[in-house]
Amino acid sequence: MDSGTEKARRESGLRIPMTTFDRMTTAEYRVYLQSLESGQSSKPSKKIGALPASRFGRMSAAEYRALLKAEQQPSGPQPKEKEKTRKKALPPIPTESEEQRAVMEWAEAASGRWPELRLLYHVPNEGQRSMATGGRLRAEGLKSGVPDLCLPSAHGKYHGLYIEMKRTQGSKTTPEQKEWLEALEVEGYKTALCRGADAAIEIIADYLALPKSRNGGDGNDL
C-alpha cells in the first residue's frame, strides 16, 4: 500500500483490515458499487485500474465506506426548526337543540321565582320525518314556521311570549318563521328571534318583569 493511504489511515485512526478491494481508487469503487446495484457483477471489473485516481489517492473499499458514512453525519450544531404556531382549537358552536335545552333547564331552575315558567313549552316543528309521518302531522295541524318556544302567560300589554330559537352562528331564519313572528305580534303577543340560550333567557326574564295581566292589555287588569 502506498504511503498516502497509510498516512490517511494513521490520521483518521481507522484500523480496518485489508480487503480484496484494497488499493482501489474512489472512482473505481463507485464503478464497482454501480455494477453491484445493476446486478452485473459481484467482483471488481477487469477495467478497474485504468480509471484515473481521485484526489483521495488510493483508498481501500472499507476506508471509502467509512468516509462516506462520516460525510453523511451532520457536523456542528444544527439550527433548531421553528416551532409551528398551533392555533387553539375553538370549541364547537352549540346546536339549536343544545341552546334550547339550556333554556329549558334554566326555566326549570328559575320556576321557583317565576311559576309561569312551568308553562313554557316547545313546538316540535323541526326534524326529519318520513313522508307518511309528515303528511299525518300536517293533517293534524303541524304548520311550518311556528316559533320554537311559547310562554302562554300574559304580561304587560302582551297575551304571551313566542321565541324563535337559533344557534349563535350559522343559522338563518326562514320566510315562514318571519311571517309567523310578524303575525303573532299583530295579534298581541311578544315575539323575539334569539340567537343562543343567553339571549332567550334575557328576553324571558325581561318579559316576566313586566306587570302580570289577566288577558293582556295595559297590565292593570288585576
Cα-based radius of gyration, to the nearest Å? 43 Å
Task: Choose one word for the global shape.
Answer: elongated
Distance between the termini: 120 Å
- Helicity, in percent? 25-40%
Largest sheet: 4 strands, mixed
Beta fraction: 5-15%
Account of the 3D structure:
There is one protein chain. The chain is of the alpha+beta class and 222 residues long. The protein is built from seven helices and six strands; from the N terminus they run αβαβααβαββαβα. It has helices spanning 3-12, 26-38, 61-72, 96-110, 131-139, 175-186, 197-208, and strands at residues 24-25, 58-59, 121-122, 149-151, 161-166, 190-195. It has a four-stranded mixed beta sheet with strand order 3-4-5-6, sandwiched between helices. A two-stranded antiparallel ribbon has the order 1-2. The protein is elongated. It starts with a helix and ends in a 14-residue tail after the last helix. The model is unreliable at 12-16 and 47-56 (pLDDT under 50).
Attribute tags:
four-stranded mixed beta sheet; two-stranded antiparallel ribbon; elongated
Explain briefly what this protein structure is.
It contains seven helices and six strands, in the order αβαβααβαββαβα.
Strand and helix map with partners:
Blueprint: H1 3-12, E1 24-25, H2 26-38, E2 58-59, H3 61-72, H4 96-110, E3 121-122, H5 131-139, E4 149-151, E5 161-166, H6 175-186, E6 190-195, H7 197-208
Parallel strand pairs: 5-6
Antiparallel strand pairs: 1-2, 3-4, 4-5
